[in-house]
Amino acid sequence: MIADGVEDEEKWLAAGIAGLQQNAFYMHRALDSNNLRDALKYSAQMLSELRTSRLSPHKYYALYMRAFDELRKLEMFFKEETRRGCSIVDLYELVQHAGNILPRLYLLCTVGSVYIKSKEAPAKDVLKDLVEMCRGIQHPVRGLFLRSYLAQVSRDKLPDIGSEYEGDADTVVDAVEFVLQNFTEMNKLWVRMQHQGPAREKEKREKERSELRDLVGKNLHVLSQIEGIDLDMYKDTVLPRVLEQVVNCKDEIAQYYLMDCIIQVFPDEYHLQTLDVLLGAFPQLQPAVDIKTVLSRLMERLSNYAASSADVLPEFLQVEAFAKLNHAIGKVIEAQPDMPILGVITLYSSLLTFTLHVHPDRLDYADQVLGACVKKLSGKGKLEDNKATKQIVALLSAPLDKYNDIVTTLKLSNYPRVLEYLDTETNKVMATVIIQSIMKNKTRISTADRVEALFELIKGLIKDLDGDAHDEVDEDDFKEEQNSVARLIQLLHNDDPEEMFKIICTVRKHILGGGPKRLPFTVPPLVFSSLKLVRQLQGQEENPFGEEESTTPKKIFQLLNQTVETLSIIPAPELALQLYLQCAEAANDCDLEPVAYEFFTQAYILYEEEISDSRAQITAIHLIIGTLQRMHVFGVENRDTLTHKATGYSAKLLRKPDQCRAVYACSHLFWVDDQDNVKDGERVLLCLKRALRIANAAQQMSNAARGSTGSVTLFVEILNKYLYFFEKGNPQINVAAIQSLLELVTTEMQSESSTPDPAADAFFASTLRYIEFQKQKGGAVGEKYEPIKV
Q: How many CA atoms lie within 13 A of 334 on its CB side?
């Protein structure tokens, strides 16, 4: 059926164009021969094609444009006729004899245009006559196009200020009156379209009306272009008359479009000075009108106007724009109790953006807007509408974008209250936005109170909120979120130790409730922030004034012990062990032997009880050895206990090569360059000999299992350790020991059962080159190396 209708319409349009072109041909012939009567006759017949009711507005427009082109030529002919002596008054009378009213009025408008140009009569009289005459067409589509033609031919002939048509009898008031009258009649015709035809075609009619709306809106554009309309005239005449028509038409499509037109076409300063009148119309609009969009656009325009120049800001204060907009939004929401929550949030979001642009220093205004939003959201629970939650994110992001400073945003008491209405996922999104803002602007948050407020805002990232403990979480997203929290913790700083300690305690309180998945991300940055504070206080044992409340390294270490312990409970033993060792090293630098010993004890307990994976054990034992070697705070007894334990762990690793490497690494625990009391050459030698035995055992096991002794890499590594201690002056490491080891490696490499290993060969060759290099150095080093034969 629809396809048939479209085909029929195409046929009717084609027939209309054919009839129009045929009559246009005869009209041209009459014009060429200066035959006025025939020209009028055929032009009237040509325009009769526009009397059709069969075409949709879209198709009718195609026909109208062809007629419009022909009328321009006819207008030029009329001008020529007047130059040749034909009376324009007679011509104006003559065209009114056309048989049908529609062609008659098109011809009248065309001649009227020439009449005004001739200035033989006041422009206002001709315009008034034309606009009144056009009332003869009450068919909506035909009437709209006719009046559109009238607006088109008259727009450059209005008696405006500075116009050639302005005179004693013609003023800008007449121009305004003409355009307003034409606008009013066109709007009535446009609205009438809605009520013609059966109810089932409502959608089709609305689509057709949408296609025609620009014909009506063009009048408002013409009004905005009239130079003579100053603020007073706009305030007293233009705006009240236009709004009266908008409100009285009681048509939602017309009201939405025309309100939007008013906002878009007239100057911003006019809107600002007539805010009362303009806003007063909004509550009177139909409930179905999308007021939120129109009001938002108004506030957006005013925001941009405020941002355009600092000179205009006093105007906003003078007219109390914020108070008026805030009141108007309240009235609109009150007048539309069924307005969706999305509409409410959009309005307040636009108002907040306006406030931040116009009154950036008035935090109380911004907080007032957020408070009003909270009031409307109260009792709604968590928002489930995706669009509404996105709008809340936009609302909450606006202060961050404007102030570039979370500290300022934290002063808004209603800010966290709005956040409460977001669902868990959106809460996380908003928390991420807040953290990104802090990172981007390198904001310094330096008091415990502000940190408390901030962590309340981002709690969606640092703990499980109601109902999301068992939700499926994307691992990559989760890691990214937690890493951003970790970076945030690192940014928190205050030069005052007391305040910094309070910040650390505040962060700790929040993150410890984060659950086993979050703690491995959030505890390490907290530990390192605490250790940074320890370094700051290094050397300070007790407060000189003896205040118990003062922050000391010992007090921080107690807190650290409890904090790291949470990781071992999760369990995350490898991470906990690394952090215990970091704390031990910091305690060492503060000369706190009992504290350092306690941290090592905790690390050893974790190693024994929790770390069972062989790779993790290897990493852990090397970390323990490396940290223990750097410790200078321990007395002989404590150091011996810890060293003995470390060597014991090394010898118990699963694979022989790992055992060997850990044992020879332990040799460094008995010889530390910058500690004279830790230079036990015998125990170094014992470690190296033990490592050799293990390396030998590894070769025998390889021979038994695989039929080959395997690589000599371990022997070369031990040889390098011998050379290291030999060079450092360990009396137990002599030339004979190194010589025998060199021979052992050479023998092993030449053995038929050894596995070829290019890397080991290169390593050994490099070691031999080093010995030769040291020999050639001369001096004490050269003498030392001279007896070694390679």
A: 9
Collapsing DSSP to helix, strand or coil, 658 comes out as helix
DSSP 266: S
Backbone angles phi, psi at 72, to 5 degrees: -60, -40
Cβ-contact 709, 703 below 8 angstroms: yes
CB 718, CB 690: distance < 8 Å: no
The candidate with the shortest Cα–Cα distance to 47, out of 97, 101, 9, is: 101
Query: Is 553 in contact with 500 (CB distance < 8 Å)?
Result: no
Instruction: Report d(CA 443, CA 609) in Å as an integer.
Output: 43
Residue pair 771/764 in contact by the 8 Å Cβ criterion? no
pTM over 0.85: no
pLDDT along the chain (790 residues), means of 10: 66 95 95 91 94 91 95 92 87 86 94 90 91 93 95 89 74 92 95 82 86 92 92 94 95 94 94 93 90 91 89 90 92 84 91 91 93 88 85 90 88 91 88 91 90 91 68 81 93 92 94 89 95 84 53 91 89 93 94 95 94 94 95 92 94 93 95 84 94 91 72 91 92 92 89 80 94 88 86
**Of the candidates 481, 480, 489, 391, the residue with the CA atom closest to the CA atom of residue 438:** 489
- Token digits for 745? 């490696």
Establish how many alpha carbons lie within 13 A of residue 439's alpha carbon, considering only the half-sphere containing its beta carbon: 14
Give strand ranges (E) for 401-449: none
| Residue 335 structure tokens | 């007048």
User: What does the block give as tokens for 628?
Assistant: 């223990």
SS3 content of the chain, % helix, strand, coil (to 5): 75, 0, 25
> Rounded to an integer, what distance in angstroms lies between the CA atom of residue 746 and that of residue 761?
10
Give the three-state DSSP class for 788: coil
Work out the burial of residue 588: count CB atoms within 10 Å of its CB; fewer than 13 is exposed, 13-18 middle, 19 or more buried: buried
Q: Which of 8, 86, 117, 114 is nearest to 54 (CA)?
A: 8
Residue 382: count of CB within 10 angstroms of its CB: 16
Largest CA distance in the chain: 136
> 636 with 591: CB under 8 angstroms?
no
